[in-house]
Amino acid sequence: MLTILGKKIGMTQVFSEAGAVIPVTVIEAGPAVVTQVKTVETDGYNAVQIGFQDVKEQRVNKPMKGHFAKWDAPLKKYLQEIRLDEGESYEQGQVITVADFEEGKKLDVTGTSKGKGTQGHIKRWGQARGPMSHGSKHHRLAGALAGGTYPSRVFKGNKAAGRMGRDTVTVQNVVLVKVIPERNLMLVKGAVPGPKGGLVRIQYAVKGQGDK
Question: What single string gives the DSSP state of each residue in 134-174?
Answer without folding.
Answer: TT---SS-----S-SSSS-SPPTT---SEEE---EEEEEEE
